[in-house]
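Practice set, problem 2.
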Amino acid sequence: MKKVFALLMSVLMAAGILSGCGSSGTPASSGSSASVASASQSTQSSDYSSMKIGVLLSGSANDGGWSQMAADAAKAVQEKYGCTVNYSESVPTTDYESTIRGYADAGYNVVVCHGSEFLDAVKAVSSEYPDVTFICTSAQSGQEPNLTGVDFGSYQFGFLVGAACGLATDTGNIGIVCASTDGTAGDWNNGVIDGAKYSKPDGKVITVCTGSWDDALKCKQAVDALAQQGCDVISQNADAAGMGAIQECDALGLMDVGAVSDQSSVGESCFISVVQDSKLGIETAIDDAVQGTLQAGFVNMDATVNVVTLTGYSGKYADKLTDQQKATLQDLWQQAHDGVDLSTLVKK
């Protein structure tokens, strides 16, 4: 039945029955200020309204989180250029390849596979459609001539989280709650460890992996366990489940460094957040693909294009860091923005 559904979807797309969706947004360029100007000139002189963009999602386009980021990014590009955007939601593993082919066979110019879980399937299919540009997000590799793997500065993002935690801790024990240590989530975790080592060389990072992106209770229990091991500052990378970690930090009087989004509104324990604006990164990649400037292979959208940023300080511990410590953290971000590989700052 799933295969029949995928085939039917392909026929419907080819007939132009599926409708596009619109959304507002402000795309950014992945290059320097010079390339931003070039992209603007290209937009003014070129008509991309005939372009068609297909997006594969592992979840709902309205989940308020990971899947919606890609849907909203594609819709922002649609509003900018007037092109067609369609997406497939909650695509089952068995239908990855057939759904990708469905878009390509229907004449779509850009196919976005949102999540590293699609990488093997899109690698298998992309070579059959050399005139289509394929994008796989949270992927550490792409494939010539037309597949781009895009990451969002996962290690760099983690490094800044770890550095903030290291500057704040009094006990020297830093707690990390994560849903996974695989793929880019593992890169983030490694970045946290190195960032903490940079700012607190004698500190210790203790990681608890819950295995869940949506169970807030597991995150609360993880914080409890970390507190018992002497951790006084916590950070989390677990999507919606991470809210439980911040709430438990509030309850236990622990400090928290927000991650992915500005999480200061979740609890007063969150005194700063390191933002990973994946939507901006996806939007930039799609924008470049539409204009024909996206390179095949691996592309890292990070602090150099403001995908990774720091928020201001707030909450109960807004004044925990000294002015000098705040300047140290800001300088780290500036180095990342200027293209410095933060891993080179730590002795291995």
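Problem 2, part (b): a different protein.
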Amino acid sequence: MENNVQNIIGQIVKAKENESPPFEFSPSASVKVSSVNVEEIIKTIVLTYHNDWEKQKLGFAREFLSRTWSGIPLPVLSVCGRGTQEIRYSTYLGYFLDHSKPHGLSTRYLDEILLLLGFKELDTYKSIVYTEKWLGQSKDAKGIVDCFCDIVISTKTHWIFIEQKINSGESQNPNSETSQLLRYDQAIANNTEFYGKKQIRIFLTPAGKISQKSPEWQSLSYKNLVTAGFDTLKSGGLSNIARENLKRFLMDLLLGPFEKAESEIQEIIAAAEKVVYNTNVTDRDKFVERLHFDQLVSDNRLLVDLLMEG
């Protein structure tokens, strides 16, 4: 469902900007005629918007309500509070990347993430997932630092390193003048445990921030994680339990790291109820309510898609 809010505003602004006096010799008449022209253009734009909305979006609003009336996937970490703590989300992500855990996904979610990063045929069978794994030590002029990576995955042919940052950049250390990911690079290079396999290094942040100092670390965003989750859900063959487990995890990814709350979901539901059931309102109020619903859907596209996922 496309959002028409910016479209509508753009058309109205364009109509105003293109307004020109039809007769140079009569300024007063031109203002009057121009005002009438713009008013009629705006009325036409609004009427077209309502016709389009009722054909394409009213059904969507009703379906959205029907999907959310029975409840929403519970965002476990978000409702517990303190949802932005990195270690909690690293442990949570590690759980769903570990095929040995009873989430019902096997390696399918991990495979979708790797596919999204361009690794199409990486064998994750019997992969081992570690959280807060010791990488080794980094040494520079200021001292020696022990390095621990949030998630490390061992496969038959690869080591996969995932370092996550939610509210901060690369961590500084008083005993080192080297940036965090460069310290990790040094520790990995000096640790014989990681010899003999190819390596994939992932820098995970909510917005997919690129490390300027460590180009070997591929950027990955929470949107990427959610997209991989949707692809897993759409691939079919999952049990109902596996689907619900993954949907709850994706809900947490969309809410917790961005410090959003369940109230935002309720706001979208309330807006949907208005556009569906508030029939005895003025044309102006109807226009405002529909635009508001469209804007909420546009601003929370992934969240709405997840709520609509059957």
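Answer key, part (b): The longest strand covers residues 128-140. The two ends are 17 Å apart (CA to CA).
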